[in-house]
Specification:
56 residues, mainly alpha
């Protein structure tokens, strides 16, 4: 479970940060809603890792 939450946090936060850069380089409109959902999901995974660190 810890590995899944770690991969979720790292993957979602990295994608949420790099996705607008990629879209701006291709001169396409940035899907801000999707990026905010990915950032919130990554932050949620990170929050669960910190909150439940004694169980893992």
């Amino acid at each position: 479970m810890k590995k899944l939450l770690t991969w979720g946090a790292v993957g979602l936060l990295t994608t949420a940060l790099l996705d607008p850069l990629l879209y701006s380089m291709m001169d396409l409109p940035v899907p801000w809603g999707r990026d905010m959902v990915m950032a919130a999901g990554g932050a949620g995974c990170f929050y669960l890792l910190v909150k439940l660190r004694d169980r893992f």
